[in-house]
Amino acid sequence: MATQKRRKKKKKNLTGGELLAFKVLMTVCAALLCVTTVRNLTAGGAKSAVGNVSEETVLSGRDMTGGDAQAAGQETGDVSTAAAMTTVPTATPTPTPDPYADKPDIDINSWEYILANPWNSIEDYYPDVVQIEDIEVDYRIYDAMESFVSDCRAAGNTVYLSSGYRSYDLQKYLFEKKCEEYDEETAATIVARPGTSEHQTGLAADITEEYYEYKNASLEDTAMYQWMEAHCQDYGFIVRFPNGKEDITGIIYEPWHFRYVGVEAATYIMEHNLTLEEFVALYKDDVAGAADADDAGDAAGSDTDDDGETDNADYGDAADESDFANDADAVQDSVVES
Ligand SMILES: [Zn+2]
């Protein structure tokens, strides 16, 4: 009975109005199949077909691996291939050649490349220093500094060495004194925390024109700076805090601050418009004990300490309070004077 009922019902349905609809549907399907076949056989068919063809190709491509999908795209003609290429992942990209493959063959852990910055403390590093005019520098750069300055003078410029080596103790004193006026975080935006000042390396000097009153960016307009910027690498010095690299150095543009790195490295750094951070990072695999040297700021010869405040670049590096007062106008939000 049940079977008969179902047959009856089925028969009733087939003989009803839906039969016509079913036939129409079958006809439409057959027609669509024909159209699709014709389109696939005729590359560059009617423009109205382009969208559908592309979509079909892409859908089939999703179920295939890269090579198969590409082949499917090619079979359906140029238009389909182009569509497939935009959605199907392509093969291995061509490796870009290393632009710094010609970097100097040096030991990045040598003393010339020691890196002190807001992210990299050199702790209480004490170089052996000697007096040169009004400042002190590491004895190993005395000759280079002497030649640099005297040749600049011989070219008709006036030169004043305004700040050189600063000891850990002096930096600590300056920082703690500032902490009496402000909370520690704020103080660190004005005076560099002890251990993070470039001046503690004994390899840096602030050089100004003798009669130039303030350290600010306009120093770059002096003939003295232009001579020094053009010739510093010949004596082993670099412009340590270049314009436009503030995010990398953490320090504002300082056309007065020169740093010794040796002639070979200096020449490379100046010719490639690099910072010391970027240069050291080129040797990240060679850095002693650098666990996270992929961060330019962490790549250093002496990463004995990370103060854990890598997000805060607000460390000052004032030579002394009056120096900082002179430069206060130039201090920006996240980058300060060295
Ligand atoms: Zn300086």
Write the layout of secondary structure elements.
Blueprint: H1 2-15, H2 18-41, H3 50-62, H4 66-75, H5 78-87, E1 129-132, E2 135-138, H6 142-154, E3 160-163, H7 168-181, H8 184-188, E4 204-208, H9 223-231, E5 237-239, H10 246-249, E6 257-260, H11 263-271, H12 276-281, H13 321-327
Antiparallel strand pairs: 1-2, 3-4, 4-6, 5-6
The structure holds zinc ion.
CATH architecture of the domain at 111-329: 2-Layer Sandwich
Apparent shape: globular
Instruction: Output the structural class.
Output: alpha+beta
Let me know the average pLDDT: 72
Under CATH, the topology of the domain at 111-329 can be stated as Muramoyl-pentapeptide Carboxypeptidase, domain 2
Radius of gyration: 35 Å
> What about the largest sheet?
4 strands, antiparallel
Strand runs, count: 6
User: What are the bound molecules?
Assistant: zinc ion
Question: Portion of residues in helices?
Answer: 40-55%
- H/E series, N to C? HHHHHEEHEHHEHEHEHHH
Separate helix tally: 13
Detail the poorly predicted runs.
Answer: 1-15, 34-38, 40-84, 291-337
Distance between the termini: 99 Å
The main sheet orders its strands as 3-4-6-5
What features would you describe in this structure?
By secondary structure, the chain is an alpha+beta fold. It has a domain at 111-329: Muramoyl-pentapeptide Carboxypeptidase, domain 2 (2-Layer Sandwich), CATH 3.30.1380. Helices cover 41% and strands 7% of the residues. It contains 13 helices and six strands. Strands 3-4-6-5 form a four-stranded antiparallel sheet. Strands 1-2 form a two-stranded antiparallel ribbon. The chain starts with a helix and ends in an 11-residue tail after the last helix. Mean pLDDT is 72; it is low at 1-15, 34-38, 40-84 and 291-337. The protein binds zinc ion (ZN). Residues 163, 199, 204, 206, 257, 338 line the site of zinc ion. Residues 163, 199, 204, 206, 257, 338 line the site of zinc ion (ZN).
